[in-house]
Amino acid sequence: MIALRSETLTATFSPFGARLAGLWHKDYPNSLVLGATDHASFRSDLVYFGALIGPVANRISQGRVCIGNTSWQMETNEAPNCLHSGSNGLHALVWQVTDQSERHVTFGIALDHGAGGLPGNRMFTATYTVERNALRLEITATSDHTTPINVAHHPYWNLSGHASVAEHILQTVATEYLPVDGATCPTGEIASVSGTPYDFTQPHKVPTDITLDANLCLARAKYETPEFAARLSVPDGPALEIATTEQGLQIYNGTGLRPTGTKLHPGQKLGCAAGIALEPQGWPDAPSHRNFPTVLCGAGAQYRQSTIYSIA
Q1: How, if at all, do strands 191-192 and 204-205 pair?
Q2: How many CB atoms lie within 10 A of CB 196?
Q3: What are the backbone dihedrals phi and psi of residue 103, each rounded to the nearest 5 degrees, phi first?
Q4: Can you give the residue range of the structural domain that contains 160?
Q5: pLDDT averaged over the chain?
Q6: Domain total of the chain
Q7: Cα 66–68–69 angle (5° rounding)?
Q8: Element at 204 (helix H, strand E)
Q9: Residue 3 has pLDDT above 90, yes or no
Q10: Neighbours of 223 (CB within 10 A)
Q11: Is residue 244 a contact partner of residue 151, using CB atoms and an 8 Å limit?
Q12: CATH of the domain at 104
C-alpha cells in the first residue's frame, strides 16, 4: 500500500483500480472509508470499494453507445446492461505510479482503441493529494477518437465506525434527480427531489430501510472549479464535505452490502448499509438520453475532474 500523510490525515492507496484503501483523521480511531490492507481483498468482495470507475461509470442501457453513425457494444455484465464499464473497467486494472511524494501520488493507465468496447487510444491520470484536512482528487483523460468518458470515485463512507450508516446525516444541493427503472437505469426523466427519498436539501438521516441508488443532479454542465455538493456527518463525530466539478452525485446507501469473511480495517464489518457511496460523476447513461449533459470527449480534447473531500 502507498501511504500519504498531512498534519491531520493519513490515506492509503492501492494501484489496483487507483483506489483509496483507507482514510484516517487524527482525532478519530476508525478509517472513514471502508477498506482493507490486503490488495487481494479488492479483487473479490471489495471490487469497487474506493476505486476509480470508468471509462464510463454507472450503467449504460443495453451496453450500447452510438457515436455518429457507429454503434459500439460494451460488455453487458449486469444483463441486459453494462455496469461500471464491465469486468475489465478501470477499477479492475493495475495502474502505474508515475509520480509520488509524502503528500501526493499520481497513477496513470492507457486503454487501447476498442478496449471495453469503446473507441479511442485513451490515457488516464489520477492524482491524490492530502492537504491539512482534505483529500484532493484530480483526474484527467485524453483520447485520439471521440469517446465517452465519465469517471467516478467510489469510496464507501462510514464516519461513525458503527455497523451501518443509519445515524449519518446528509445534506446536498441537488433539487433534481434521475428516476431509474427496475434495472437501475435512468428512465430519461429529470424529476424534482421534493417528496421523494432523494430530498436532502435539508439535512436529515440517511434511510437504510429502503434502497437509494440514483444520480442527484448538481448542474447541467461541469463547473470550472469544485463547488459544494454534499455534507455527510454523524453526531459527536467527523463531518465530510464534498466539492466537485461534476454535474452529478450518485448516492447508494449500501443496502446490498452483505457480510463476508473479508478482513476490513479495525472496527469495520461488511453488512447491509455498512457504508454509503457518494460518487461525483457525469449523469449516468448519458449516451442513451439526448436531454442529459453529454459525456462524450472529443478527439484531442482533455477530460478533467476535480473533487475535494474535506474532513472536520
Answers
A1: unpaired
A2: 12
A3: -120, -5
A4: 2-311
A5: 97
A6: 1
A7: 80
A8: strand 204-205
A9: yes
A10: 15
A11: no
A12: 2.70.98.10
